[in-house]
Amino acid sequence: MARRVLITGITGFAGSHLAEYVLREHPGVEVCGTWRWRSRMENLDGCRDRVRLIECDLRDPVAVRRTLEEVKPERIFHLAAQSFVPSSWTSPLESIDTNVHSTLHLLETMRALGLQETWLQIACSSEEYGLVHPDETPIRETNPLRPLSPYAVSKVTQDYLGYQYCQSYGLKTVRTRGFNHTGPRRGEVFVTSNFARQVALIEKGKQAPVVKVGNLEARRDFTDVRDMVRGYWLATDGGCTPGEVYNIGTGRDVTIQWVLDTLVSYAKVKVTVEQEASRMRPSDVQILCADNSKFARATGWAPSFTLEQTLLDLLNYWRERV
Questions:
Q1: What's the CATH code, domain 4-182+224-251+289-303?
Q2: Could you tell me which of 134, 149, 219 has the C-alpha nearest to residue 179?
Q3: Choosing a second label site near 253 at 20 to 30 A (CA), which of 35, 48, 210, 223?
Q4: Single pTM value for the model
């Protein structure tokens, strides 16, 4: 059992849920996490007094070395990233610089400090698969990677850096390709949260009864964030093979239209839907659905939340905040 873990991006959506999971399910483990001046500290309202926060910009190799020397973690969960796909179209260099350099600095520092026994879980992405043909679903880890956004390219690079440093230097990296995940605290720019927030605003009379949408035809495999972070922990718990890559997803894909219809069905008022051109992407991944059998065999992981429950929890989250 790890005595001390480090979560990069602990104030983020998944990072804060992972911190809560470790504190709840593994008492006695010290939880440390990196943050920056603009971090969403409110995400840690439920556990801030029980975690050790370290200010660190992962793009700064000096700061990364200082952090790892100070913490000496048995497990590192690398969740910090520029994770909003549309932003990578407008600022591709920022996405690639942030995601690639942060990962490279962690790996180089682990190598320099001789941390061969420290597990490093790298939160990669199903977006790496990109252009997926209908006969290639559900998607296995062996599927070709055809990234369709600068964000996806940056995650492919993170992914293969993890593989290379395991093979070249013996670091205990494990790469998890997480499929879409959502739930309470999801940033409002992400589709499920954006829809839920709009419904909550309409219910409160703060928005006209029209939900603005983008592409509703894309199909996604949505996992509850609370199931996803449990998967992150299991990935470093001994069942996975260092250097290997594992899909984490439910194996069930739904259209964005289905997500919208489900959230609208929970609404307390009547709403209509309107498509906005500004919400459309230059190119969009049409289908992402996970074959999670490799990860399930290695760890015993299986989702515990239904998507219906996740969406209702997300809507209730926004009902309390708008």
A1: 3.40.50.720
A2: 219
A3: 210
A4: 0.95
